[in-house]
Amino acid sequence: MHLPTPMASPGFEVIGSGPGRMLPPGLLDGLPRGQADRALWWHRHMVEVLTGLRPEAEAGTGPRPEYDPASRSLAEREAAKAAELSAETGRPVSPHTVRRRQRYQKRGVLGMVDGRRAPRRPVLGQVDPRVVEVLRRLMDQAVDGSTHTVSYYFTRVGQAVKQLEGVGVEMPSRATFYRRFNRLDNGVVDRVELVGMVDVATRSITAAVLRPTTKSVDAALLLARSVTPAPMRPGWPEALRMEHSALPFERPLSVDERLRHAAAVPLTIPEAIVVDGGKAFLSKNFHAACNAFGTEVIHAPPRTPTHKPHIERGPWVQRHRCSPSS
Fold first, then answer.
1. Distance between CA atoms of 115 and 102, rounded to whole angstroms?
2. 262 lies in a domain?
3. Of 103, 182, 203, 326, which is most buried by a Cβ count within 10 Å?
4. In this structure, is residue 260 part of a structural domain?
């Protein structure tokens, strides 16, 4: 059980020793001396805030009145500790700083270490390396083959582990196996940017582009898609064709023959486009595309989402936004 869990529970008591006296050996190994000492210093104070006694307290010692859990609330104990540390260090310490106890309750004394210097947990946790090796081998064999589910690998690895020579090879639980598999998977997980145009008159999304990083050509592509007929996709019902819609099909058809096989999506040539400060919308490519259609580009002031509320309030998330006006 994680040490802070019983220590924070009502009625917790260590018989024959002060509460929280023992720490797992080697827990702070690898840290600079000053970092380890600082973490242990916080450890002593966090234990007193949570339990009323410091770890070095002798058996039978009672808590100081300001830290007695029986008469002081946690907020009062935090305030008392903040005042004590301010006097001890000669620097102001706020109750908010003392609330680092939440990190202490979650991670123990390691929660008091600067996260940039805290020892990292092994990527594969406590899973037997032989199990990991079998999984890696099966994943390598499947690179050029069919795609398999995680359940498939769980079954195959379990069968292979049973055939390993010797004893002591333990197959992890299904949940643990699934977590480790995700860390070993060769797939790439990354962020993407969604950029789109919203027609103010109809509140409809006229175009959208999903890219790893938005380029100037992507911003120009938005305008191109907005003014270009959208082709019918295989499997779409005939009722979605432009010729079956209420839109003036015959008149636009005389201008653009591509509408004969287009879906019933209106072509929007914006009179003005409101954009944010994204580099894609500041580019020459985007402005040249707008100039070709006589479209005015209006740059919204920085950090003013109210200037383009139609896209800001939409049910999607994107980094760069533009909302054309009809």
1. 14
2. no
3. 103
4. no
